[in-house]
Write a structure and sequence with these properties.
Strand content: 15-25%
Strand order of the largest sheet: 7-6-5-8-9-10
Structural class: alpha/beta
Distance between the termini: 27 Å
Helix content: 25-40%
Radius of gyration: 17 Å
Number of strands: 10
Largest sheet: 6 strands, mixed
Low-confidence stretches: none
Order of helices and strands: HEEEEHEHEEEHEHEHH
Mean pLDDT: 93
Length: 213
């Protein structure tokens, strides 16, 4: 656990962008019961947390992808983060729609992107990895070189790990499920005994036996 991972975890918990409720699970759109609610859009309305998040993303890009030429946000949650980090790093940015527009120029990629340019994708959250891989595929179809993904938070689910590996793209999150669970226990948001239940959920989201533990 790095200092930055811990800092961002504390920030997200403080503003309830990540909120644990193992005793009264949330229900995802898929019907899966979850002990965690995550809405990183709330960072945008919390300036101090927003600064920590954007600076942490910028730090990862400078360290891992100094050759990056363009930042591309995922639509819609990654757009603001890509714009702010682009400003911090004085880099061009754009974003990738979930599909092509049905009017105008019918773009899927917004912003100027030249073939061969080196791109870093900015995402807010990775669960199963499906949506961000669609963005990577669209950029590759446009002949860009995708260096990697930088996200705010990842569940670390095996499905996403396998999908990212199959797509031959690396994700770096500035904090993650395990760190937030540990910090949440330390800070009194959850009980230490809840961590086992949370990890059981993460390892197999379709198995609801963790609810009764």
């Amino acid at each position: 656990m790095t200092n930055n991972e811990r800092l961002i975890a504390k920030d997200l918990l403080k503003i309830k962008a990540v909120f644990f409720r193992p005793e009264e699970p949330f229900t995802w759109a898929s019907g899966i019961k979850s002990p965690i609610y995550c809405d990183n859009r709330l960072t945008l309305t919390a300036p101090e947390v927003r600064n920590d998040v954007e600076n942490a993303i910028a730090e990862v890009i400078k360290e891992k992808y100094p050759e990056a030429e363009v930042l591309m946000g995922t639509s819609t949650a990654g757009i603001a983060h890509a714009a702010i980090v682009g400003h911090l790093l004085n880099m061009p940015m754009g974003y990738v729609r979930s599909g092509t527009k049905d009017h105008g120029r019918q773009n899927q990629i917004e912003g100027r992107l030249e073939p061969g340019q080196k791109v870093v994708v900015i995402e807010d959250l990775i669960s199963t990895g499906g949506s961000v891989i669609e963005v990577v595929d669209a950029l590759r179809d446009a002949k860009a070189e995708v260096l990697g993904i930088v996200s705010i938070f990842t569940y670390g689910m095996q499905k996403s790990v396998d999908r990212l590996a199959a797509a031959n793209v690396e994700n770096t999150s500035i904090t993650n499920f395990d760190v937030i669970a540990q910090v949440a226990a330390e800070e009194g948001y959850i009980q230490e005994s809840d961590i086992t239940r949370l990890i059981a959920f993460r390892n197999n989201p379709s198995d609801e036996s963790w609810i009764q533990k």
